[in-house]
Amino acid sequence: MSTHPTFAVVGHPNKGKSSIVATLAEDETVVVSPDPGTTRQARGFRMQNDDRVLYELIDTPGFQRPRALIEWLQSHERSASERPAVVREFVALHEGDPRFQNECELLRPILAGAGILYVVDGAHPYGAEYEAEMEILRWTGQPRMALINMIGPGDHVEEWRRALNQYFSIVRVFDALRADFAKRLELLRAFRELSEVDQLWARSLEQAVEVLQNDRKARQRRAATEIADLLIEVLALSESAACAEGADQAQLSKELTERLRKRVRQREHSARRVVQDLYRHRSLQMQSSEFDLLTEDLFSERSFSVFGLSNAQLSMTGAVTGALAGGAVDAAVGGASLLLGAGIGAIVGGLGVMFGSNRLAKVQVLGSPLGGHRLIVGPISSPNLPWVILGRALLHHRLVAETNHARRESLVVDVDAGEHLAGTIDAGRRRHVARLFERIREQSGLSTHQREELVSHVVAAMDELGGVR
Amino acid sequence: MHNARRGSLFQEALEISAWLEADRDRPFDQRLHRDRKIAASISDSDTVDRVRHWWQVVRRETPSAAHDTELATRLSRARVIITFSMLFIGALAGAGASLAVFRYDGTWPINVVTAFAVLVLLQIALIAATLILMLPRIPGLRALQSVLGALNPAAIAAAAYRRVGRQHDQRASLLVLHQARGPVASRFARWQIVVWSQCAAVAFNVAALVCALGLITFTDLAFGWSSTLRFDSEDILRLTRLLSTPWRDLWPAAVPTAELIEQSRFFRLAASAPTAIAASELTGWWPFLLAAVTTYGLFPRCCLLLLAVFRLRAATRNLLLDDPRVRALLDRMNAEEMQLGSNVEETAAAFPDRNAQSAPAMSGDAVVIVWSGALRMPDVAPWTAKHLRWRVVETLEAGSRTIAADAAVIDRVATLQMNPVIVFVRGWEAPLLELQDFIQALRAKVGPQCSVVVVPVGANGDVASESQRSTWSRWTARVGDPALYLESGA
After folding, report:
1. Residue B427: closest C-alpha in chain A
2. What are the two backbone dihedrals, phi and then psi, of residue A71, each rounded to the nearest 5 degrees?
3. Which residues are CB-neighbours of A225 under 8 A, at least 6 positions away?
4. Per residue in A293-305, pLDDT tens?
5. Structure confidence by residue, pLDDT tens digits, A260-313
6. In chain A, what residues touch B156 (CB-CB under 8 Å)?
7. Structural domain range at position B454
8. Which of B429, B437, B462 to mutate to test the interface with A (most CBs of A within 10 A)?
9. Which CATH number fits domain A6-197: 1.10.132.30, 3.30.70.20, 3.40.50.300, 3.40.190.10?
10. Is A50 within 8 Å of chain B by CB?
11. Which of B150, B182, B338 is opposite residue A447, by nearest beta carbon?
């Protein structure tokens, strides 16, 4: 028996064995194809923690001649206790026989001690021809679990369950294409049940669950850090060019604004790539659903209305932030201002946001100590843009974190984002984040401590939006 | 060959940032594995040392892009050139000031008050301004700090430095004082300006002292004191005693005596220079002046320079450590590593994209084999008539019992000598080699002319879906039997 938990994923061809392996191993390179016989050799996928193998899944080719195999086994049966030995004899005898190449390939890891994960398709009807496969697996005498995968809209789960219960100690429904992280953990816990006879395996699987959870949290934090850095960089961005005497400043300003927009788009794109990479989705393509949510241009009106804050929310956030700044003045004068500072701050903050909402960035001409002038566009002053970027980043993160690695088609945005996604962030948190946005504009960045604060708020917003469990 | 020589911390901070930026294209898991492995081999406990050690290792494997190294070197060199320029400018100014202050043409003695004002008092005022600049940005002081910052000659040096960076538009945003690095970058810039200004100030004092010493040694100077203000000798004595406190015990000769003060006062309205005392007595002021410049000019400037260098080094460390890319690196170096995946290369088969042919136009009678219960037996004849327009002569079952039973079915079909033979299969199931064996055995019995038509059926007795038909069509084509066809009834 293997020192680490090992499970051979076996079954009929095209029932999603490779999809299950791709999902559990988070490996988008596993070839998932509708053509039977695509997987020709058993391939091990290990989960390791600091070079210690916690468990291994073996993707195997599907059964091709199960009836011939079971007939051979039955014709060589001596006693029930010797059935595994007969299976071993079969493999030894047919090693190199092209007729039974698949069967030998899938039985070999089982005979070496791997637990069995038998995959069937619960979306289609049960068929008696599967009994040959299940019987072969029973002959091996190894611990067995059946996974009912769902390939399609049909539901024949109960029918399958009744049949599988006769051959397998554990039967679970696991939709490889739609299984989120929680479902994966659930499945790993089920593997532990399968391994209860072997305490070493059970402990290893427990540790695997713990490591996966920690790793997930770490990845979420890294993704939040990337989003925070995206916001910091975008809000501190500016474009400048030498502005000669008599130059057309309006035209230059337009060109610089366009350059600024381009850089913001590029930075957002780069952040998305980083987040996808963190979740091992490097090849994931984003395709629009009927609403083209994430592929919508960042600066379009629609992006602002779907992802940003509403005018009321913006004004309210601006007013509260202004009131807090004014309140600091009140506190400094020991309340002698009768809260006038807070009141004025709220009005100025609210109105400032309302009237400044159409402008993308500050435009200014500055003299250089070395002579000449430079026209500077930036930093970005649009109060809603950071919220739009945050809203888009949160939704993108949620989709990437929830998409599993068996999915081969493009990422389809099928969540109901509704309107003003950033507005779903808790109002108190919004206030803190708005203050940090102000700080970025004032300081052209954030201190280490402030950056950590922003990261924590982004993590919390991710949790509020859902997606990482 | 890349030069792995260790550069300055500043240059390495630039190179590391640029290298890490390019490294973002490498998959995260690979970076995590690499950085953890390097981290395990590093014994340094200091974070910056760990990063620099890591850099020494990775640059050996993957040197920086030439343009990144070149730009970092250029910026680093620009910084050094600016430092030397400030030293040179300071020295030039110091020498000039000294020569001007100690100018003596043998008529009127050098006015100690003027020399003291230029070489000491002005410096004390400038030191006070520097101290204000060195304070953190406190509300209330901020405006004053901005004005003083703009007046600082080193601000011009900083502007020149920024211009060097801007020559490479694309890379400048990455390398020049690290955009979007707010407080950390501004702290670095502030201390860099202070270092440059203190370099100039130290050079000023050194040059002033050297020139003064040169003049004192190689020419004869005479000193006196004169002021419009109504100071009497007692006031000056008290003041000089107070100013001389720091060196009184170390260099007593540099403390002016009451006689010297009394006798060296002069007024330019007088018909001639003071001659009441011996000319040699008028040289008595120089030790005091040199001691004052050293104590109130050179010494504080050296202290400030030392402090600024120290703080600049700390700011450079922070510049490195605060970089988001470096923070991510440290996170990777210290992270727990979870590896998922396979060491075995994917050997998936790639099949040609070839589809099966449709059956040639035929009408009449057919024999049907239902493979693995693809259709209920009573439904076979109506389904065939409706979707395929053949009349079913006999229906047989195969694929769900023993292989011997399948062989019997083949024998029966051969006996019937019907053309075509229809094989209904479950469209949602993958075609197995078992079916291929069956079809090949059937072909051997019915001969090469007999048309065998594979018909995939949908799960509820419907016609197979597009994707099911496509899978079966490719498989049928792969069998390579020229009289094997696919019909879907669609």
Report:
1. A124
2. -65, -40
3. A455, A458, B324, B327, B328
4. 677 788 888 788 7
5. 999 999 999 999 999 999 988 877 666 544 335 677 788 888 788 778 888 777
6. 369-370
7. 364-486
8. B429
9. 3.40.50.300
10. yes
11. B182
